[in-house]
Write the structure tokens for this entry.
Amino acid sequence: MNKRFIIMLSIALLLALLAAWVANRWIQSKAIPDKKVSVVVAAVEIPFGVKLEESQIKEIPWPESTTPKGAYSSKAQVVGRVAMNKFYPDEIITEKRISEYLGGSTLSALITKEYRAISVRVDDVVGVSGFVLPGNKVDVLSTKRDRTENNQAITTTLLQNIKVLAVDQEASQEKEKPAIVRAVTLELKPEQAEIMVQAMQEGTIQLTLRNPLDNELEESAIKVPEEPKVVMQPKPVEKIRDKKRVLKVIPW
């Protein structure tokens, strides 16, 4: 082999190694270590709907670049709030998964702002054989008799995509097995609650279970027929015959 070729190859390899070493040192000098911040995580398994206590949470260091939005930095910000979901050990607690507790039952802390909770008496049919569970979405159907002579039963879709807060006195979304219940608590707006109460007074209601991915609202295919308008016929006016006038001459 040519001696000159061997020397040139050796020099090329040496220069390549030198360039790689310089590049590596430059990258290391420019690299900034990821800053650590304190985040609050679950220290133990935390059930749904319980008030968070200091013994259930802890603070751990976490890379700032991967810290989720809404995470808390101190335990004091979390203690006393209500868990809206189940937390597992070392799971980061964020503001969207807990709710502020201001007294009363823990269920009141789970109600969305500007909404109301209303309980509806159900049976095995209305409650979809017990398959309606907390966290499900349902439609509410209303059935009532019309006021015409036929007295037909009219069914309409009263409310759509309504969230179930609790069944009986169970509000945990970890509940999976169906069970026959006596009441279902729904989350409604004030005007929807008025419609619901009126429907229960005028007839019966039925719940229909929705697919959790189906959030579309459709117009009801069945429309309530308008009540026939009664047209008041004016009474015939009785003509009054003119009386004959008699002129009497009074003598003086």
Notes: The chain has three helices and nine strands. The longest helix spans residues 3-30. Helices lie at 3-30, 106-110, 190-202. Confidence is low (pLDDT under 50) at residues 221-231.
